[in-house]
Write a structure and sequence with these properties.
- By secondary structure, the chain is α+β, with helices and mostly antiparallel strands.
- The protein has one domain.
- It is built from four helices and twelve strands; from the N terminus they run ααββββαββββββαββ.
- The strands form four sheets. Strands 4, 9, 11 and 12 form a four-stranded antiparallel beta sheet that branches. A three-stranded antiparallel beta sheet has the order 1-2-6. A three-stranded antiparallel beta sheet has the order 5-3-10.
- α1 packs across α3.
- The radius of gyration is 18 Å and the shape is globular.
- It starts with a helix and ends in an 11-residue tail after the last strand.
Length: 208
């Protein structure tokens, strides 16, 4: 389990960010990607709801199903909510930044799981925050939402961070990496689902 934001960030102050999980040696990612099938399902309609302090947060539930259609075991990276990408016609791709996850990835070796031939794994996203706070949601608009995953035929070796910048700089760097199409080159992609997020009505007091 990822530590609370306060305790984790105290540790992260001496660590620098690293990129998305990449192997130090080639592990046949092209073969792995061709055998992995990812299905994204909108279980409960996504919407924006008002939060305290005039902010808004995401509500709803998405389900991601991974299926190994090949004959060898695959190693899937644990991207968590970072695998989601919201694409619109009028703006760059939007990614949800799980700051605790950014920190965890920067201070630990590669995290993931294996999926044997014919096996499936399901992820559910219904809680859009951590440590008592919500993650910044996409702005109102129409999106095509998909899920992506870096998959390998062997567990990759990834170096952890070294002494580096502040937590704020680390999280900012993490966000830039997640939003970079170059960083996700070669990743497996799910189907895209249409999602429209309307502008929420801010809280104006109690209703009768």
């Amino acid at each position: 389990m990822i530590a609370s934001r306060t305790s984790l960030f105290a540790v992260l102050a001496v660590f620098a960010p690293v990129g998305l999980a990449r192997s130090d040696t080639a592990v046949n990612p092209v073969d792995a990607v061709s055998k992995l099938r990812i299905e994204l399902i909108q279980k409960k309609k996504l919407r924006l709801l008002p939060s305290d302090g005039g902010k808004v947060h995401l509500d709803g539930e998405l389900v991601v199903v991974f299926s190994n259609d090949g004959d060898q075991t695959l190693s899937l990276t644990d991207h968590d909510v970072h695998g989601l990408v919201f694409r619109s016609k009028d703006a760059p791709p939007f990614v949800i930044v799980h700051d605790c996850k950014c920190g965890y990835d920067a201070t630990h070796a590669w995290q993931g799981w294996t999926l044997g031939p014919g096996q499936q794994k399901t992820l559910r996203f219904a809680d859009w925050g951590c440590s008592g706070d919500y993650w910044t949601p996409p702005p109102p608009g129409a999106y095509l939402v998909s899920y992506r995953n870096r998959v390998f035929t062997q567990k990759p070796v990834v170096a952890v961070g070294t002494v580096g910048p502040s937590v704020e700089v680390m999280v900012s760097g993490c966000q830039q990496q997640l939003a970079s199409e170059v960083e996700w080159a070669g990743a497996a992609q799910s189907n895209a689902i249409e999602v429209t997020l309307g502008k929420p009505r801010l809280k104006t007091g109690s209703s009768r």
